[in-house]
Structure formats: structure tokens, C-alpha cells
Design a protein that fits this description.
The complex is a heterodimer of chains A (233) and B (243). With 233 residues, chain A is mostly helical. Chain A has ten helices and no strands. Chain A is 79% helix and 0% strand. In chain A, α1 crosses α5, α2 crosses α5 and α5 runs antiparallel to α8. In chain B, α3 crosses α4 and α5 packs parallel to α6.
């Protein structure tokens, strides 16, 4: 194969800038989606452990719906279909006035999808705790909310740090799908560099290296956090 | 102070408690014994509503347990409970374990809660361990912290659910000593235990349960010297044979 390797294109303008902004958008989409996923996923995970069947049923339905439809299909639904079927004023607002529409849609789509996965981890974390632990709280006169807030969740979160790390890495990598609705994140920018410079190998090698660098940094940081926290098992 | 009237409980088809009636008056120590699966633990957990029951009535200090309109968290806050496997909050220091419900349920200030906690840790002989996590303590120490945690709420009565069954033999006495002290200080207590030495020493009355029924309800001396039912006799002869 004849191929003219030229790594220097990666530091040339405008390609270097494209890689930097691409990385920035990837981090922004991932971080924002992760925030939605953790908050919503935690609430849904908790709801699934409550004795109220109605609440638990709705939460379970959410989880099943969002984790069983392909993420790409969900992104398309949010981007192309949702504005059309929402009430007209809302649809218009999304199409005309929503700032950064591609970014916002990607964050919402990815966040809601990941929330379903996070809820499974949270529920498993809570259910892995001895039943007596909650009983001890109730026996002291705590309310259900207090037992969750002060006992079950702090302990369960320590249990789910490893799966949470995995979920964050998944969100981070899934963020590459945002390119399909027009977010110029890292994968999209690498593709663009490849098309403009014809140096596909260098462009995608750079993307690969950046993805790995960030995921490994996160994984290392989380294992540090895990070791610092007192063991609860 | 605690009064159970014809309490019935089923787990599906299984009749766990059968028409159980028993009274505990203020300052009285009631020991509940019987073979495993006889409903002892379920009975004490019904008293503070950790287990529900289907028929009958339980009155604690004039309040009906589990009744519509009864504020169960408020009632539970007034009844101390000690579990077989301690159930300390594993992510908190010993001190925080004892302070948590004082602050969140009784709305005590942190300073007041700590002062109360330190006093109780002194009383159960663990003053130097307040900063440790539960996992850094022995089973006997953990159970003493659990007792201190329950006492911190200034309970009107204490429930013990086999407090020494999960302990290594050499740690049983340090927990029993705390309980004996508590009984001698006049605490109202319901104690599920197999420790007949403890029962002989501090119990006022002993009830014997078998297959969900209270078979025998007698003064301590009557229970140990002349149990009226055959099942209690057999039970006693079995567990006392080795002493």
C-alpha cells in the first residue's frame, strides 16, 4: 500500500483547532448527558426499589423503554420526530429558538438513554444492601426519605462506583453518535480532517488516542476515589 | 407500657403468630425464648411496626401500633431496637452512627448529640473508639455501639432481637454486661435470647414460644423451676443440659 504518512498535519491549522474543538464538544456532550443520567437514573433507580407498585411500575417502564430502543434511533427520534409531534408552539420553539439545537438534542437523547442504564445500577446497588440496614434507620424513627438520604444512598453509591465508571465511559464513547445529528465532536472532526487532508490514518489515530487517554484518566481517577472511600461491604 | 392483644400474623399461608397476648409493664424485663422459627423475632418486630400484623392490637405507651393515624416514625423513635447483626451504618464513624438519628429525628444540635453520644460510649466502655468505622470494631464492640445508638434516642423501652447470637463466645459477656446494667437501671426491655444465664439474672418474666404461640408466660422463678407446659420443659431440659 502506498501511503504518505504525515503526522505533522495534526498540528497544522486548521486541523489542530478542529481536534481541540472536537474534543471539547465530546467532553461537553458527555458531561452534560452524564449529569442528566445520574440525576434521573438515581431517581428512577430509587423509585424501582419503593414498595409503591404504581411508582415502581412507571420507573420500570421507563427503564425498559429507553434501554431497549437503539441509541441512534432515539437520537433521530428526538431530533427529527419530536419537534413535529410536540404541541405546535413547543415544536416551533425547538426548531427556531432552541440554542445549539444539535448539542441540546444530543445531550437530552444520550442523557435519557443513559439514565435507564444508570437506574439499573442504582437499583442493584440498593438491593445489594442488607435489609436490616434500612430497618435500623426506620427503627430509630427515620422517614423513608431520611433512610434513603442518609443511609441507603450513601452506602449504595460506594457499591456502584465501579459500574458507574463503566457507564460514564460508555456515555463518553456513545457521544460519538452525536455526529449523526450534526454535532461537530471528536469523531466528526476527525472525519472532516480526513476528508480535507486525505490523511485518514493520522486523523483517526489521533481520535483513538484522545478517546483512550481520556477514558483511562477517568478510570484511574475513579479507582483512586474508590480506594479513598471507607469500605462498606 | 407494652401490651399485645391477640396478635395474628401470616406470611402467605404460614401462620407466624397465633393469638399472641402479652403485657410488659414499666421497668419490667421480659425474656422471650423458644426454638428457632417459633416467631420470637417477628413478635418483637411487630412491637415497633417493623413487621406488620393482620389481626389483634399492640399498644405502646397508649399508642396503637400500625393503626391508621398513628405516626409510626414518631413512635419508633421512642422505642430502641438492637438487632442480631448490629446493623450499624457502615459508612459512618461510631460517633456519627450515634448522632445521626438524634440530629435528624430528634432535631438535636450537633453539639448536644455528640455530648450524649460520648456519654453513652463511656457507659458501654468504648470512649476511645468514637472515630473508628464499624468495620474496624469487633462484633461485641459493634453491638455495644448499637446499644448506645438506641439509647441515644432516650427510649421508653428497648427491644433486643437475639443481640448475642451473632457473636463469638468470648464477646457475649461484654454485651450482656451492658444489658444487665441497663435492666438494673430500670429500663423496660423485651429481649429475645437463648442466654438463660441472662434471663435468670435480670428477667422479671419469661415467655416461651413455639410455632407462633406463646406457650408459657411465667415469672422467672416459676419458669425455671416448674414450667407448666411439656414443650417448655423439653426445651429447658435441652438447653440447660450443658450448663
Amino acid at each position: 500500500m502506498e501511503y504518505n504518512w504525515d503526522w505533522s498535519i495534526l498540528v497544522q491549522e486548521p486541523y489542530l483547532w478542529w481536534l481541540i474543538t472536537g474534543t471539547g464538544w465530546t467532553l461537553a456532550v458527555s458531561a452534560a448527558a452524564w449529569c442528566i443520567a445520574v440525576v434521573l437514573g438515581t431517581l428512577i433507580g430509587i423509585a424501582r426499589t419503593l414498595p409503591n407498585r404504581f411508582v415502581a411500575g412507571i420507573a420500570t417502564a421507563y427503564t425498559e423503554l429507553f434501554r431497549n430502543v437503539p441509541l441512534l434511533v432515539q437520537l433521530f427520534l428526538w431530533y427529527f420526530v419530536a419537534p413535529e409531534i410536540l404541541p405546535a408552539p413547543m415544536g416551533h420553539w425547538i426548531k427556531r429558538d432552541l440554542p445549539l439545537p444539535e448539542f441540546a438534542t444530543a445531550v437530552v437523547g444520550l442523557g435519557l438513554y443513559t439514565a435507564a442504564r444508570v437506574s439499573i445500577q442504582v437499583r442493584a446497588g440498593i438491593q445489594s444492601l442488607r435489609r436490616g440496614l434500612a430497618m435500623a434507620g426506620y427503627a430509630q424513627g427515620m422517614t423513608v426519605a431520611q433512610v434513603y438520604r442518609h443511609i441507603l444512598l450513601p452506602v449504595a453509591f460506594r457499591v456502584v462506583i465501579p459500574p458507574f465508571t463503566t457507564e460514564f465511559l460508555t456515555v463518553f464513547k456513545n457521544s460519538s453518535l452525536a455526529l449523526t445529528i450534526g454535532v461537530l465532536e471528536l469523531t466528526a472532526q476527525s472525519g472532516q480532517i480526513s476528508e480535507y487532508s486525505f490523511h485518514s490514518f493520522e486523523a483517526f489515530t489521533a481520535a483513538t488516542a484522545i478517546y483512550i487517554l481520556i477514558t483511562m484518566t477517568v478510570a484511574a481517577a475513579m479507582s483512586l476515589v474508590e480506594r479513598r472511600l471507607p469500605a462498606v461491604a | 407500657m407494652i401490651s399485645l392483644r391477640n396478635v395474628d400474623k401470616w406470611y402467605g399461608q404460614f401462620h407466624t403468630l397465633k393469638k399472641c397476648s402479652v403485657d410488659v409493664s414499666r421497668g419490667e424485663v421480659l425474656v422471650i425464648c423458644g426454638p428457632s422459627g417459633s416467631g420470637k423475632s417477628t413478635l418483637v418486630k411487630c412491637v415497633n411496626g417493623l413487621e406488620s400484623f393482620q389481626a389483634g392490637e399492640i399498644i405502646v405507651d397508649g399508642v396503637s401500633v400500625g393503626a391508621l393515624g398513628t405516626d409510626m416514625p414518631k413512635l419508633r423513635a421512642r422505642i430502641g431496637m438492637v438487632f442480631q447483626s448490629f446493623e450499624l451504618y457502615p459508612h459512618m464513624s461510631v460517633l456519627d452512627n450515634i448522632c445521626l438519628a438524634q440530629e435528624k429525628v430528634l432535631n438535636r444540635s450537633r453539639g448536644d448529640a455528640e455530648e450524649r453520644a460520648r456519654g453513652l460510649l463511656e457507659r458501654v466502655g468504648l470512649a476511645e473508639h468514637e472515630k473508628k468505622l464499624p468495620s474496624q470494631l469487633s462484633g461485641g464492640q459493634q453491638q455495644r455501639v448499637a446499644i448506645a445508638r438506641a439509647l441515644a434516642m432516650d427510649p421508653i423501652a428497648m427491644l433486643f432481637d437475639e443481640p448475642t447470637s451473632a457473636l463469638d463466645p468470648e464477646m457475649i459477656n461484654e454485651v450482656l454486661e451492658v444489658m444487665v446494667q441497663l435492666a438494673q437501671d430500670g429500663m423496660t426491655m423485651m429481649v429475645v435470647t437463648h442466654e438463660m444465664g441472662f434471663a435468670r439474672k435480670v428477667a422479671d418474666r419469661v415467655i416461651f414460644m413455639d410455632q407462633g404461640e406463646i406457650v408459657e408466660d411465667a415469672d422467672k422463678d416459676a419458669f425455671f423451676t416448674a414450667p407448666s407446659s411439656d414443650r417448655a420443659k423439653t426445651f429447658l431440659s435441652r438447653i440447660l443440659a450443658h450448663i
